[in-house]
Amino acid sequence: MADKPSTPLLDTVNSPAELRALPREDLRQLADELRSEMIDAVSVTGGHLGAGLGVVELTVALHTVFDTPHDRIIWDVGHQAYPHKILTGRRDRMRTLRQKDGLSGFTRRAESEYDPFGAGHSSTSISAGLGMAVASDHLGTPRNVIAVIGDGAMSAGMAYEAMNNAGAMDARLIVVLNDNDMSIAPPTGALRTYLAKLVSGPVYRGTREAAKAVVQKLPPFLHEPARKTEEFARSFFTGGTLFEELGFYYVGPLDGHNLDDLLPILENVRDAGAGPILVHVVTKKGKGYAPAENSADKYHGVSKFNVITGAQAKAPSNAPSYTSVFAETLIQEARDDERIVAVTAAMPSGTGLDKFAELFPNRIYDVGIAEQHAVTFAAGMATEGMKPFCAIYSTFLQRAYDQVVHDVAIQGLPVRFAIDRAGYVGADGPTHAGNYDNAYLGAIPGIVQMAAADEAELRHMVATAAAYDAGPIAFRYPRGDGMGVDMPERGAILPIGKGRIVRQGGTIALLSYGTRLGEVLAAADRLAALGLNPTVADARFLKPLDEELIARLAATHDVVISTEEGGLGGFGSHVATFLAANGLLDGKTRFRPLMIPDRFVEHASQADMYAEAGLDRTGIVNTALTTLGYDQAAMTAALAKI
Ligand SMILES: Cc1ncc(C[n+]2csc(CCOP(=O)(O)OP(=O)(O)O)c2C)c(N)n1
Ligand SMILES: CC(=O)[C@@H](O)[C@H](O)COP(=O)(O)O
Ligand SMILES: [Mg+2]
Predict the structure, then answer these.
(1) 426: annotated binding-site residue?
(2) DSSP E strand boundaries for 447-578
(3) Counting runs of H as helices and runs of E as strands, what totals does the chain give?
(4) What positions does the entry give for Mg(2+) binding (predicted)?
(5) Do 149 and 246 sit in the same domain of this protein?
(6) Closest ligand to the CA of 345
(7) Are residue 346 and residue 238 in the same domain, yes or no?
(8) How far does Cα 569 stand from its chain's mean position?
């Protein structure tokens, strides 16, 4: 264990106002202490480390130059906002970060007046900032609005929609492009090459080296609003950039770790009274912490770690992760079928497709943070007979809903959706919870929807998706490790729309969709110990529903309980609709859908979140007993016996 870092100056700074009162020459020391404090805090909690390390100086500079919280700083994604949290009154809670009842890992309006916009998903900051800037005009409350967006987040369509709008409106908006040449993985695409050109091209190198001169040169044109429409002013430093063509003043590239550059230039930008302005800062992800700087992912997301060695704590596991089973199985299938290709939207390691890329570098497409494009791009490939597997987290696929409907489903194209992080994801909290795909895909005609009950089932579902050419097909699986079941060597092709009976009993039928099956079986054991031996079924498919199986369960049991890792409108709703529409609830059968509750559940461990939702073994047993008519006393007495 490393000693707690010594932070004598930071200890005196409890708010941005106190930061602003410091002499400028102290800010370097403050930044160093802030960095040490952040490393120490994240070593205890785990979380997003590299991005925050890269913006320590930028955070100090922004809070020094701008009058926060009156001025608004919007951190895109929000994963880099830990230094901002430390400086804005949350330092004493940093070691609760991402823990139950602790600080969020992202910006959150409810958490602080210094977080004017909540985030978690990327590329929203320019739109939100523009909205704030326009609102401040309408309301006659002048303020500066600063959107800080990374080069990775800058690949998403939303960023361009916002710049297109802002440029035409001449809005007073400051965009800070934090260019660290990293997304989670190194970024892909033409924008990366373009930014690299800006940073290292001969014209721009001159500009960068002349950073001091820039300080003197910037004020004249930015101070003179009358001249701001002159074309030469817009391209003063660079001779015309993409951003200038979109109507922004472009300032940069600047060394984002050099406070002597950042502070005066940001002051000039603040005082310019003009906009929109884009300030291009160049930073290093993981800056100032050698293990992060030297790692391939710059310690984007880490578990708890040893500060001295950088070694991360890895929880022991007896089972492979679902992600790795997906990737391995896709590789197996791809070896047999050259038409299989994989698409990721900037999540090669998170989806396991980095392994696929090692073996099939010409059959993997990392399109950057661009989920909408990823889906329609996959649809295009499918029209030509390719077999695209679009691997996207449930939460990020939300971005591409219209593309799934319009570009895939209506045209009946066989795009395969590998939906990772289904259900609660734990520490990333409600922005990242994969709670909605059962409902949002379930509402679309013609998509086959599957959920894996365990890692062996996932293997079958990958094989099934590979073999299915009749239209779109999706399979979902959660964050984390499998159940430790025996793995088949190869996946079997499942009959479409058919579930399976896992355990035959009576009175109560537990109908599971997804990996709640483990808890369902544990609940079944408890109920069996009470003399109530339930039937357990794994639905496998939400669409098409196994109507024959469900009708049979309803006809032969008093109580049917469905479970799923999804919210309202999902599997339980489909089962309820089927049962009600067919008169199967008109008799003595009682149906109870167990699902993720209709509210945003704060970050905690996945197990805690499911317990709170009543989706663990205890919740399932309680639902079964109360549905059978046990009152609280009878239930307590019964449970005391086992
Ligand atoms: C819509 C969306 N897709 C994917 C992600 C996952 N994600 C979080 S941070 C990140 C990389 C962002 O890169 P950049 O904006 O350059 O920030 P950096 O981490 O480099 O500071 C990605 C892909 C996300 N949060 N939102
Ligand atoms: C900030 C962000 O969106 C990602 O970094 C996300 O936290 C990754 O989640 P996993 O750790 O589940 O891949
Ligand atoms: Mg980046």
Answers:
(1) no
(2) 448-451, 473-476, 500-503, 507-513, 535-538, 541-543, 557-564
(3) 27, 17
(4) 151, 180
(5) yes
(6) 1
(7) no
(8) 22
Q: Which of 280, 275, 278 is nearest to 168 (CA)?
A: 275
Please report the pLDDT score of residue 171 as a whole number: 85
pLDDT tens for residues 337-357?
999 999 999 999 999 999 999
For the segment 488-497, what is each residue's pLDDT rounded down to a tens digit? 999 999 999 9
DSSP annotation string for 252-269: EEEETT-HHHHHHHHHHH
What are the structure tokens assigned to 610, written together?
């499911």
DSSP state of 96: G
Domain coverage including residue 431: 322-476
Map residue 502 onto helix, strand or coil. Answer: strand
Distance in Å, CA 278 to ligand 3 centroid: 16
Three-state secondary structure call for residue 385:
coil
CA distances from 57 to 75, 145, 214, 565, 577 (A): 14, 19, 19, 41, 56
Answer for the pair 146, 266: CB distance below 8 angstroms, yes or no: no
Whether 472 and 506 map to the same domain: the answer is: no
65: nearest Cα among 356, 261, 236, 284 = 261
**Number of the ligand 2 atom closest to the C-alpha atom of 347:** 13
Contacts of 630 (CB under 8 A, 6+ apart): 638
CATH code assigned at 578: 3.40.50.920
Q: Is residue 156 pLDDT above 50, yes or no?
A: yes
Instruction: Give the chain's radius of gyration (CA, Å).
Output: 27
What are the beta bridge partners of residue 513?
Answer: 564
Nearby residues of 165 by Cβ (< 8 Å), 6 or more positions away: 127, 130
Do residues 268 and 222 touch, judged by C-beta distance below 8 A? yes
Strand order in the sheet with 507-513: 500-503, 535-538, 507-513, 557-564, 590-594
Q: Can you give the CATH number for the domain in which 441 is found?
A: 3.40.50.970
Which pair of structure tokens corresponds to residue 153? 């987040």
Structure ipTM: 0.99
Q: Atom 10 of ligand 2 has which residue's CA nearest to it?
A: 350
Which pTM was predicted? 0.94
Enter the tokens of residue 349: 């390691």
266: left (phi > 0), else alpha (psi -120 to 50), else beta? Answer: alpha
252 Cα to the center of ligand 2, angstroms: 30
* Claim to verify: residue 332 and residue 286 sit in the same structural domain: no
State in Å: Cα 152 to ligand 1 middle.
Answer: 6
Q: Which of 82, 175, 349, 369 to mutate to test the pocket of ligand 1 (most atoms within 8 A of CB)?
A: 369
Question: Which residues 6+ apart lie within 8 Å of 294 measured at CB?
Answer: none
- The total of structural domains in the chain comes to 3
pLDDT of 99 above 80: yes
Residues 269 and 346 reside in one and the same domain? no
Q: For residue 301, is it within any domain? A: no
**Statement to judge: residues 237 and 118 lie in one domain:** yes
Q: Indicate the length of the chain as a whole number.
A: 642
The answer to whether the CB of 425 is under 6 A from ligand 2 is yes
**Is 570 within 8 Å of 576 (Cβ atoms)?**
no
Indicate whether 429 belongs to any domain: yes
For residue 362, tell me if it sits in a domain: yes
In a domain? residue 484: no
For residues 505 and 588, state if they share a domain: yes
User: In this structure, are 466 and 516 located in the same domain?
Assistant: no
